[in-house]
Amino acid sequence: MLKSVETIFKRTISHKKTRVFLLSTAAQTKNEERLSSFRTTENDPVKHTTDHLSQFYKVDEKDKKSLFLYGGLPKSFQLQAKTFNETCLMIRQPAIDIINCIKSIDFSKPAVRFVLYGEMGSGKSLSLAHVIHYCFRNNFLIVHVPWLGNWMRRCQEYSNSETKEGFVDLNIDAAAWLLHFKTQNTHLLSNPDIKTSEDHVWSKREVTPAGSPLSELVEHGINRVKYASTCAVILCDEIKKLSTQGVCKTLVTVDGYNAFFYPNTRVYTEKKEVVHPHKVTLTEGFLNLSKFDWNNGVVVLTVDEIAIAEKDQISHLPKYLLGKDGFAHLDPFVPISVPNYSKKELLSCLDYYRERKWVRPFEGQDEELSFVSGNNPYKLMNICAPL
Q1: Which of 26, 61, 71, 207 is the most buried (most CB within 10 A)?
Q2: What is the 3-state secondary structure (H, E, C) of the chain?
Q3: What is the pLDDT of residue 48?
Q4: Residue 353: inside a domain, yes or no?
């Protein structure tokens, strides 16, 4: 009798051990599946679809240097990418929506304008970066202002315009932007068809004749900084003509576009009077490109509360941030909301951080970080950052 009880006891213990082993193995397999699902092997944005939503893709280092060497990615994100030794963007619905629209646009019709909007830190700039990467791979000519707030709130230098009375030039910022434009479009500027349509006279000895490569106009603005702002405006006008003629497709993107319509800049005249954005020479070129009176192009803009640095803002919606004049200038446009992370996106982001050994896992971590961050991408990144 005693021997049979002992046998039953051993069998029960053995069964429990087997059950625990099977459960732990199943849990481990589930965790491995989850950890492998946050990253996609499809790193070409041209092939991204809704099947890749919430997954991270790796931006090719060569593409990153071409597109974002002089701006376009938030500084905090760049620091994180440097720490992780790779630049990965999450494939999110707003970017996929715009990419799908671009794929089906009739470019013979007037340029379509998209406006990305959302709460601070929701990921508007990174969604814009994804769209830029897609258009770069599709051989669009890219006209990209990485952050307009830098021009209107933190310009490096300002002076009275030599070509337009009553206007103010931001020549150092304009020359830096021309270099950014040149770097992004090196592969297209060598095209002999991309050339100037008319003579541009700078002085008695300096002329850019009609039929010159567009790169010559860009180089002139970089080398002769006093003409950089005027060069940027003329460049925008020439690009508009080239696109309308069907020579190239153009993507126009401005991050923080609403700063063009906010009167309280930190640009001043010689008498220390505040200059309205519409009296800044550079503004003319980009307002011209954001109209719909041309074709063979697409315009993707963001509006952001930080771009104007105004306290007590009551809304992040385009109608409020653009104001009456800005809204009228863009109307009609396609609004694209950039929300905070969904549950799936949050888990994908945390799995990426764990894979990079950026956070150490513990029980209930997902729920706690979701609650503390409110699923806001920027807040989540800051919470997970080192002390």
Answers
A1: 71
A2: CHHHHHHHHHHHHHHHHHHHHHHHHHHHHHHHHHHHHCECCCCCHHHCCHHHCCCEEECCHHHHHHHHCCCCCCHHHHHHHHHHCCCEEECCHHHHHHHHHHHHCCCCCECEEEEEECCCCCCHHHHHHHHHHHHHHCCCEEEEECCCHHHHHCCCCCEECCCCCCCEECHHHHHHHHHHHHHHCHHHHCCCCCECCCCEECCCCCEECCCCEHHHHHHHHHHCHHHHHHHHHHHHHHHHHHHHCCCCCEEEEECCHHHHHCCCCCCECCCCCECCHHHEHHHHHHHHHCCCCCECEEEEEECCHHHCCCCCCCCCCHHHHHHHHHHHHHCCCEEEECCCCCHHHHHHHHHHHHHCCCCCCCCCHHHHHHHHHCCCHHHHHHHHCCC
A3: 96
A4: no
